[in-house]
Amino acid sequence: MNLLPALPNTGLRFRRIDLDGAPEIEARAENVVDTQRSTTLGKGGVKVHTVEHVLAALAGAGIDNAIIELDASEPPIADGSSREFVRMVKEAGRVAQADPAEPYRITAPIELNVGESQMAVFPHTGFKITCTSSDKGGRFTQFFTLEVTPASWEKELSHARTFCFYEEIEFLIKNGLIKGGSLENAIVIRDDAVLTTEPLRYPEEFVRHKMLDIIGDLALIGRPIQGHVIATRPSHHANTELAKAIQAQMRRPLEAAQTFAPPPAPAPEAKAAHVKPTKSAAAAATTTATVNSPTSTETLVRDGATLDIMQVMQILPHRPPFLMVDKVTKIDGPRIVAQKNVTMGEPFFEGHFPGHPIMPGVLQLEAMAQVAGILMMRQAENAGKLAYFMSAEDVKWRKPVRPGDILMIEVEMTKSRGKIGKAKGKCTVDGEVVSEADVTFMLMDR
Question: Count H helices, E strands: the chain?
Answer without folding.
Answer: 10, 22
